[in-house]
Design a protein that fits this description.
Oxidized Rhodanese, domain 1; 106 residues; Thiosulfate_sulfurtransferase; five-stranded parallel sheet; Rhodanese-like_dom
């Protein structure tokens, strides 16, 4: 199955344009603490249904970008968020590595 993807440049531009978005790291908290993009929040896949995801991601129309570090968690989280009613959910192209290897110029 193929999933929609967003690239670093798209997220960067949305932040510069002050658009609403959510960048969600679905790895466990310890992995998230080791390295993550500045504006990312952590909602581990293992707790996605236990935490009140609706309190963290308030609007169903907000563009949500999910990532992991190649563990395969992001795809599962994307499906769960879609099942919860979120409409605009995509994977971060390249996962965490795709963010870390971002181009140095706009």
């Amino acid at each position: 199955m193929t999933y929609p993807k967003r690239h670093y440049r798209e997220i960067r531009q949305a932040l510069l344009d002050k658009q609403e978005l959510a960048l969600v790291d679905v790895r466990e908290e310890a992995r998230y603490a080791e390295s993550h993009p500045l504006f990312a929040i952590n909602i581990p896949l293992s707790r996605l249904e236990l935490v009140d995801v609706y309190a963290r991601l308030l609007r169903f129309h907000t563009p949500i970008t999910i990532y992991d570090n190649g563990e395969g968690l992001a795809e599962r989280a994307l499906r769960k968020l879609k099942d919860c009613g979120y409409r605009d959910v995509a994977l971060l192209a390249g996962g965490l590595k795709g963010w870390e290897e971002k181009p140095h110029r706009p």
